[in-house]
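Sequence in, structure out.
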Amino acid sequence: MKNFLFTIILSCAALISSAQFTVVSSVNAPEEGESWEISNLTQNMGIGYNINDKTMIGTYKNGDNYEVFARHKMNFGFLCLEAPTEEATENMRVGFGSYITIYNGLSINPIYMIPLKEDENGEREGSFKVGLSYSL
């Protein structure tokens, strides 16, 4: 039993030490009449885990709820899949984004997302957002 636990702990330590984590955030524009604050950058913060050189999975806080995401890098940008933790299949979104590197792991991420399912009016309105990411 001790050997089994030691193997599990060693495997987890190797996985974590070889992993690359990325801190992600979306920039929220202030409401009309309000000024820019640090909360506009930190309200939707999260963390991603790079499985390999091209694929990242993670979670971020969207207001009071948590959402999960997956990104797959391609030569011209990345494909993105996002879903809330509750009713994920009903509210799943897909999109395309790009990494614009600013400095050593810090990048700006413009992303366009569109829902997979139509709303009650039969429309699928996409949204554009700008995010920041920093690879640790």
